[in-house]
Every structure is written in structure tokens, then in C-alpha cells.
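User: C-alpha cells in, sequence out, please.
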């Protein structure tokens, strides 16, 4: 029995610990109140001698932070390793990660711990400022808990490729819903446009043109690029830089669509690995964890690992449909507040659909999310700001 436990303990201990922590909700909520600060509390703590910083990377064992001055300039070359007090980490939390990339935190310089094995300066992470926004999905280990990927961003740049891997319009819709609920400006970039050369008569290309036109009519910013330094034109490169300049941008999209290639064109402090295979069908991960990068053009970008599939999860049809901007004028006109906007209901959304005021493609995307038939593993939750 002892040898079995030693051999298999890692497989079961993680889930067991999570479920034990779930019994400590009351204790966790009280501790969260002491760790997460309001803006007023934040200013008071700074006066007490703590220094503000931004979380730039979170790995399995370590949190990396960079000091941030009062004007918002983040000193990404002065990275420090931060540790969090056990009184904060050993409690039940509604989130999988205690802090995430993009979080604004208060730290205190700490005595060097030789066990960490790093030459970087060390500090203790004492508090976190309440987030302006966040992008999250459901934790696969515990459905009642969030897995927050990043926070406090100015814009969400959704990257898809026309081919290799093929664009998934439903995935773009899910990101747009999250952006709408978090009040983040979304920008859509369609990459690898050179792969469409010679396919002008194909129905797939016509479908792409129609979808680009649809998103533009809905008020979304849509761009088409070939993010390859050997092929991109000077005009395209200038346009790409203007999108990211003086902003904190989060890059999101399927694996292999070219997110790291886009970052490299913007002059990051650290060059990102790029997939070199000629053909990518499902997409391969080249970024393994979210990272906060400073750009030479001015601004910052959070590059996240690609997500092959996930789905928006909500029990409220009103909240879900609100994420589709074209449905908003009709939602409150429905006879019932709980209207699911399906055929057979006395529904103003369906009436607008029949009149051609709502796209059939987008409506089917909504139904797929509502009925749980869109997306597979890795569910993303639509969460309002704190």
C-alpha cells in the first residue's frame, strides 16, 4: 500500500486538496477582503512604504513582478521574484490562480532566500488591487472555480488565421462576448492572408469576405495581415504598430495562428518562439504560459497560450444574448425577461432575424452556446468586472 501511494499520489492529491479547500469558503472570503484592495486602500498602502508592481509572468512555482511607477510605466527590465504569504495561498479561492499576468500588486523587499536559486531580487507580494477587467475560463479541476488568464488590459486582440489552422468564426464570437461583458475593446486580426492567393473563386474565400464585412458592420475593428517579416508590406507593418502602440493589449486565439509572429514584428524585449512547420492543421503551442512584454513601439502585450477549444458558459439567456451586440435593441422588447430567443417564443430577436436584421450565422452561434453544442473542452466563463 505504501509503494502504491508513493507511485500514484501525484495523480490524486491535487484534486483531493482542491475539494478539501472548497470546504473553507467562509475563511477564504474573509481573507480575500484583506488581500484585495480598493483604489483608496491602495493609495494608503503605498504611503506605508510598499512599492507598486505589475505581475509579468506566473509559472508553476514562481511569480515574477516588475515595479510600476505612478504614471503607469512598468520597468520590465527590473524583474523580481515574488512570494505570497501562506495565509493568502492556503485558503479556498474562487479562482485557480491567486494572481495573474496583468495584476497590479503591492510588494515589499525581502531577504534573499537561497532555496529559490535565482540571482533576481526577491520580494513578498502583500496585496492586489481590484481588477478593472479579466479574461477567464472554468477550471477543469473544479467547475465552480475560475481560471483567470490575464487582467487589466486596454484591448483584446483576437487573432485567427484564414488557413492552417482554419478560421473558426464561433471561437471569435466567444471572445467577442467576453470582451463585451468585460468592457474591453476587441480587435480582430485575420492572419496568413497569403494562403488565399489563387483561391478567389472558392466558397470559403467568399465566406471569409462576408464574415469580415459582417463584423465591420457590427462596429468591430477588423484587419487582414500576413504577419511574416519577409512578406509583410511597409504599410501593413505601420498599421500593425498603430494597433498596439501605447496600449496594454492581450493577444488571444487558437494555437498556431501567428500570435508570436505578430509580437515579434512589434519589437518585444524578448523575441518569441515561432512555429516553423509549413503546415499547421490543429495548431501547436509555441507559447506555454502568459507573458507580459514591453514593446519598442510603446505599449505592452500579454501573449497567452493558444486555446484549441472552449465554450462560453452561462445559465442566463439574457446575459448571453447581450454579448451579441446586434441583439441588444430587441432583447428588452421580448415578452418575457427569461426569453431564450428560440423559435416558438413570442420573441423580438427571432422577428428581427426573420426580417434580416440579425445574421443567421451569428444567431446559430448564439444557439450553439445556449444549447451547449458549440465548443468542447476548456470552457470560458463570461464574468462581469469586479
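Assistant: Sequence out:
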Amino acid at each position: 500500500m505504501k509503494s502504491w501511494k508513493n507511485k500514484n499520489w501525484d495523480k490524486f492529491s491535487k484534486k483531493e486538496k482542491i475539494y478539501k479547500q472548497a470546504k473553507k469558503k467562509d475563511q477564504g472570503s474573509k481573507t480575500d477582503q484583506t488581500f484585495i484592495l480598493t483604489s483608496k486602500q491602495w493609495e494608503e498602502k503605498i504611503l506605508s512604504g510598499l512599492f507598486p508592481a505589475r505581475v509579468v509572468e506566473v509559472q508553476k512555482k514562481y511569480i515574477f513582478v516588475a515595479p510600476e511607477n505612478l504614471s503607469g510605466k512598468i520597468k520590465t527590465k527590473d524583474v523580481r521574484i515574488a512570494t505570497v504569504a501562506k495565509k493568502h495561498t492556503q485558503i479556498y479561492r474562487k479562482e485557480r490562480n491567486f494572481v495573474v499576468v496583468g495584476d497590479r500588486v503591492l510588494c515589499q523587499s525581502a531577504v534573499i532566500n537561497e532555496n529559490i536559486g535565482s540571482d533576481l531580487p526577491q520580494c513578498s507580494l502583500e496585496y492586489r488591487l481590484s481588477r478593472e477587467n479579466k479574461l477567464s475560463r472554468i477550471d477543469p479541476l473544479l467547475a465552480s472555480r475560475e481560471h483567470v488568464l490575464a487582467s487589466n488590459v486596454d484591448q483584446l486582440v483576437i487573432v485567427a488565421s484564414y488557413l492552417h489552422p482554419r478560421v473558426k468564426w464561433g471561437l471569435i464570437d466567444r471572445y467577442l462576448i467576453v470582451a463585451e461583458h468585460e468592457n474591453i475593446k476587441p480587435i480582430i486580426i485575420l492572419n496568413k492572408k497569403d494562403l488565399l492567393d489563387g483561391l478567389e473563386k472558392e466558397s470559403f474565400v467568399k465566406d471569409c469576405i462576408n464574415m469580415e464585412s459582417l463584423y465591420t458592420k457590427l462596429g468591430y475593428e477588423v484587419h487582414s495581415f500576413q504577419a511574416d517579416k519577409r512578406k509583410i508590406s511597409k504599410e501593413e507593418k505601420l498599421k500593425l504598430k498603430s494597433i498596439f502602440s501605447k496600449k496594454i493589449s492581450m493577444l488571444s486565439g487558437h494555437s498556431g495562428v501567428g500570435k508570436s509572429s505578430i509580437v515579434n514584428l512589434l519589437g518585444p524585449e524578448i523575441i518569441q518562439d515561432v512555429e516553423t512547420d509549413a503546415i499547421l492543421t490543429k495548431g501547436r503551442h509555441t507559447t506555454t504560459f502568459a507573458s507580459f512584454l514591453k514593446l519598442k513601439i510603446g505599449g505592452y502585450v500579454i501573449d497567452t497560450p493558444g486555446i484549441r477549444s472552449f465554450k462560453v458558459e452561462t445559465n442566463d439567456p439574457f446575459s448571453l444574448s447581450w454579448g451579441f451586440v446586434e441583439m441588444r435593441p430587441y432583447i428588452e422588447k421580448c415578452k418575457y425577461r427569461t426569453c431564450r430567443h428560440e423559435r416558438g417564443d413570442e420573441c423580438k430577436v427571432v422577428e428581427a432575424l426573420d426580417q434580416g436584421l440579425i445574421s443567421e450565422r451569428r444567431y446559430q452561434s448564439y444557439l450553439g452556446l445556449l444549447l451547449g453544442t458549440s465548443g468542447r473542452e476548456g470552457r470560458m466563463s463570461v464574468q462581469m468586472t469586479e
